Amino acid sequence: MSDVRVRFAPSPTGYLHIGGLRTALYNYLFAKNKGGKYILRIEDTDRSRYVEGAIENLIDALEWAGVKHDEGIIVENGELTQTGEYGPYIQSERLHIYKEYVDELIEKGHAYYCFCSKERIDEVREKQKAKGLAPKYDGYCRSIDKEEAKKRVEAGEEYTIRLKLPVNRDIKFHDAVRGNVTINTKDIDDQVLIKGDGFPTYHLAVIVDDHLMGITHIVRGEEWLPSTPKHVFMYEAFGWEAPEYVHLPTVLNKERKKLSKRQGDVAVGDFKKKGYLPEALVNYLALVGWSPESNKEIFSMDELIDEFSFERVSSTGGVFDKDKLNWVNGQYIRKADLDRITKLAIPYLKEANLITDKDINNRYDSIKTMVSTVQENLSFMAEIPEKVDFYFNDEVKLENEKAEEMIKGEQVPSLFKAFREELNEIDEIDKEFAKGIFKKIQKKTKVKGKNLYMPLRALLTGQLHGPEMADIVLVLGKQNILDRIEYVENNIL
Predict the structure, then answer these.
(1) Exposed, middle or buried by CB within 10 Å (0-12, 13-18, 19+), for 319?
(2) 470: helix, coil or strand?
(3) Rounded Cα distance, 388 and 391, in Å
(4) Which of 28, 60, 146, 480 is the most buried (most CB within 10 A)?
(5) 187's torsion region: left (phi>0), alpha (psi -120 to 50) or beta?
């Protein structure tokens, strides 16, 4: 096999969809597994759908996810630029190249000028639909003499250029996921290659670019499978060796329908905003359509590269299950360095008005300890304000009847009295006090076990289970705990 070269070639039409990230990821994993190159190319020939800033957002999302390309469009010093010897990597900068190759197809008799108006084509398609036929171009301009067509073009007549497919011919190709595929040309349209605005369609540009850039494997979504026979024929028409095809299954929601914005988060930016760790999202996304040989579920990027192959990519849609993603992300949060998690948590705590910049500067260690107490229970970072909310409430909100029952135990007034006495003997709570306070209360009251810890945990957090009690005491501080004791005595006991 020649050196592997693959590309991810999105259109700059907005955000990077989670399905697009998976396509980029599979390209990247395959290239790295084979010691090849992964290229980022921008397909912007549909000018009506171009969105300003979309290329920068796309690159930002891919780099955040750790899916970094070897060639193509990059951002350098805040500016878009290109790196690699096969550029330009933006299709709108390659129009002169497509003109040269479409002229070659016309000269060889594999493409023709079409002068049909949009109204005529729409009318033809409506009639076909009425007869129960698949709507497609009827070949009205196929037989126009080439020289006559050129004269009409020179006279200023509006035109497109279409691919001239052979009549009633089986076109065969092999797909790494679906095996051997055969489609007859009677079921395929004579595809427009150059539009009325002079820009190429995807179908011409992708063939020319992939050939000139030495792409060995076309790895893309299965929605392109019906177009592939046209592409196979064009490779043949140009006399070029066709690449290998890999059509990936669609990313589906839990109802097994295509993942769409209407069902919630589908943009990579949505997951970044909610505080998913990039390595967790990539780990989970790799498993949506691909299965490793082992039952292992947690993979580093290097491990994914080592294990990845198209042989284990499914031909049926992969379900994107948010609950499973949350589980995977939770695994990564628990293993992550506490400083990293604290720094990720701070923007969410600030946005919820739970901390200020002054707190970050003066109480970072306390914030870090607070984050550590809930690190085990986070699915994604945006959850953190609700998880630590109990630290900032003046009231004690009991989670259920069991918590209320525990806090109303007959031993509780003596526990509170002992707790208050110990607090009144110090100026501020330090680590030593936090670690020893419960033994002191036990010694004073002779209460131990769950009769000691559960009511006091309910006092401090409103819950019966959770983080280390010493950490909670340290984060809450003296006055906060005294206020809670008073609140429970006045409102609950």
Answers:
(1) middle
(2) helix
(3) 6
(4) 28
(5) alpha
DSSP 465: S
DSSP-assigned letters across all residues of 295-315:
S-----HHHHHHH--GGGB-S
- Contact of 216 with 6, CB cutoff 8 Å: yes
Average pLDDT, the chain: 93
What the block records as the tokens of 69 is 């390309």
CB burial of residue 112 (10 Å; 0-12, 13-18, 19+):
buried
> 174: which strand partners?
180
* 196 contact partners, CB below 8 Å, separation of at least 6: 158, 159, 160
Which amino acid, residue 320? F
Name the H helices within 108-167.
Answer: 118-130, 146-154
Task: Provide the percentage of residues in the chain whose pLDDT is more than 90.
Answer: 86
Which domains are delineated in the chain? 5-91+251-319 (3.40.50.620), 94-248 (3.40.50.620), 337-391 (1.10.8), 401-491 (1.10.10.350)
What does the alpha-carbon distance between residue 106 and residue 150 come to, in Å, rounded to a whole number?
Answer: 10
Measured CA to CA, the distance from residue 221 to residue 245 in angstroms comes to 11
The verdict on whether omega for the bond into residue 88 sits within 30 degrees of 0, i.e. cis, is: yes
The pLDDT score that the predictor gives to residue 288 is 96
> Tokens at residue 270, please?
């949505």
Report yes or no: 82 and 89 within 8 Å, Cβ to Cβ. yes
SS3 267: strand
Q: How far is it, in rounded angstroms, from Cα 154 to Cα 113? A: 12
Give me the helices (H) in 200-337, please: 202-212, 228-238, 268-273, 278-286, 301-307, 322-335
User: Which residues are identified as catalytic?
Assistant: 261
3-class secondary structure, 245: strand
For CA atoms 391, 395, 401, 404, the dihedral sign is: positive
How far apart, in whole angstroms, are the C-alpha atoms of residue 487 and residue 493?
9
**pLDDT tens sequence across 342-394:** 999 999 999 999 999 999 999 899 999 999 999 999 999 999 999 999 899 87
Q: Is the pLDDT of residue 263 over 90?
A: no
Q: How would residue 299 be classed by pLDDT, with cut points 50, 70 and 90?
A: very high
In the numeric block, which tokens belong to residue 14? Answer: 């907005």
Residue 344, amino acid: L
> CA 279, 284, 289, 295 torsion: positive or negative?
positive
